[in-house]
């Protein structure tokens, strides 16, 4: 049986400048090393895959992963959506056949039912500003709450 692990980018936005896998490839038990993000590849989030590695034991896999050397150029990034929209730094991944790099994506709108009636009928209404990755639309019917919040009467 082989054990696999992925070396991931620790930065929110970076370019891979150089990768050295030679030491890892020579380590005991290592069966495969595959560079996913070659030099020059732009990475758009912390956790982006850089190198995949397989070895005969979990310990060999972990040791070999530590032996991989990656040099990154850290690029500008934004944490808040509002900042990304105000300072369009082109930090989003290229999208579509034209490889458009724009922090603003066209949105859509849709509604069903009467929102005001739904608020009036609700046991509790929690208001706030919410954000998240653009590729995960909000899901109606799913909510996260904390105890101690009294319902609005």
Mind explaining what this structure looks like?
There is one protein chain. It contains four helices and six strands, in the order ββαβββαβαα. It has 153 residues and is α+β, with helices and mostly antiparallel strands. Helices cover 18% and strands 22% of the residues. It has a domain at 3-74: Aldehyde Oxidoreductase, domain 3. It has helices at residues 22-25, 58-67, 81-86, 115-121; strands at residues 3-8, 14-20, 30-35, 42-43, 49-55, 69-74. The protein has a three-stranded antiparallel sheet with strand order 1-5-3, with helices on one face. A three-stranded antiparallel sheet has the order 4-2-6, with no helix packed on it.
Characteristic key phrases:
153 residues, Aldehyde Oxidoreductase, domain 3, three-stranded antiparallel beta sheet, 18% helix, 22% strand
Task: Give a quick account of the main beta sheet: strands, pairing sense, barrel closure.
Answer: 3 strands, antiparallel
Helix content: 10-25%
Stretches with pLDDT under 50, minimum 5 residues: 139-147
Strand order of the largest sheet: 1-5-3
CATH topology descriptor of the domain at 3-74:
Aldehyde Oxidoreductase, domain 3
Query: How many strand segments?
Result: 6
Radius of gyration: 22 Å
Specify the number of helices: 4
**What letter string, H or E per element, gives the SSE order?**
EEHEEEHEHH
**The CATH homology group name of the domain at 3-74:** Aldehyde oxidase/xanthine dehydrogenase, a/b hammerhead
Secondary-structure map with pairings?
Blueprint: E1 3-8, E2 14-20, H1 22-25, E3 30-35, E4 42-43, E5 49-55, H2 58-67, E6 69-74, H3 81-86, H4 115-121
């Amino acid at each position: 049986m082989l054990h696999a692990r992925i070396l991931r980018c620790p930065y929110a936005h970076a370019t891979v400048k150089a990768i050295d896998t030679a030491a890892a490839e020579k380590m005991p038990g290592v069966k495969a090393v595959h560079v996913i993000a070659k030099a020059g590849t732009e990475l758009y989030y912390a956790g982006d895959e850089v190198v995949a590695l397989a070895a005969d034991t979990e310990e060999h896999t972990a040791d070999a992963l530590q032996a991989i050397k990656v040099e990154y150029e850290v690029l500008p990034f934004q944490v808040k959506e509002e900042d990304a929209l105000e300072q369009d730094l082109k930090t989003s991944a290229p999208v579509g056949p034209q490889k458009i790099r724009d922090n603003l994506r066209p949105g859509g709108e849709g509604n069903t039912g009467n929102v005001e009636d739904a608020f009036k009928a609700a046991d509790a209404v929690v208001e706030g500003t919410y954000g998240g990755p653009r590729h995960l639309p909000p899901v109606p019917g799913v909510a996260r709450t904390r105890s101690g919040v009294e319902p609005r009467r």
